[in-house]
Specification:
189 residues; alpha+beta; four-stranded antiparallel beta sheet; 7 helices; 4 strands; 49% helix; globular
Length: 189
């Protein structure tokens, strides 16, 4: 009985990985070739999309990273976020401005930078997540800010700003524009 239960769990996860991969493949294909066109979605696309967007599957894939896709194979520059912190004392004087918390080891830095992929959901029109998911993203930002506050014992408040890089397009780069802009996505005090 125990082996059957384990096997069914493994098959369920494999089916889920296959379904998410199928949805990602369809998203990539139709998003590239039919971006500004109307089209009828194939039945396999609709089924995989409905499964992937169901609440339990959506939560599971977000927490495990199954929904991240394979964008690192793409030739485009990936989206990149910057989180800035402004620490102030009790009089409102700025003590410190920084973009990264202090990390003891390399793994922490990698985990910190990969959490930013979740913030793409805040700016995407395609995803309509539950309100609690957006609250979860806000909690992550607040936890990082709390960690930053602990690094400076003189700090009484911290302002956290989340920015998205706006890289120059190829056309504007050819015209001499080489610097990137930052777009404010969210701010917490």
């Amino acid at each position: 009985m125990k082996k059957k239960l384990q096997l069914s769990g493994i098959l369920m996860i494999l089916l889920l990985v296959f379904t998410i991969g199928l949805k990602g493949t369809f998203d990539g294909y139709y998003g590239f070739y039919y971006e500004n066109k109307d089209y009828k979605k194939p039945l396999a696309y609709t089924i995989s999309e409905n499964i992937a967007q169901s609440k339990p599957v959506n939560i599971f894939t977000s927490y495990t990273g199954f929904d991240t896709g394979y964008g690192f194979y793409a030739p485009n520059v990936a989206s990149d976020f910057v989180m800035s912190f402004e620490l102030k004392d009790k009089n409102g004087k700025i003590l410190e401005q920084k973009n990264l918390p202090y990390f003891i080891n390399k793994e922490s830095r990698v985990r910190y930078t990969t959490v930013f992929n979740m913030f793409l959901d805040k700016i995407s029109d395609k995803n309509n997540y539950d309100k609690k998911y957006y609250q979860y993203l806000d909690i992550i930002m607040r936890q990082i800010a709390t960690h930053i506050m602990k690094e400076n014992p003189k700090a009484c408040s911290v302002t956290t700003k989340l920015y998205l890089y706006d890289y120059p397009t190829i056309a504007s780069f050819k015209k001499g524009k080489t610097n990137e802009n930052l777009i404010l996505i969210d701010e917490f005090k």
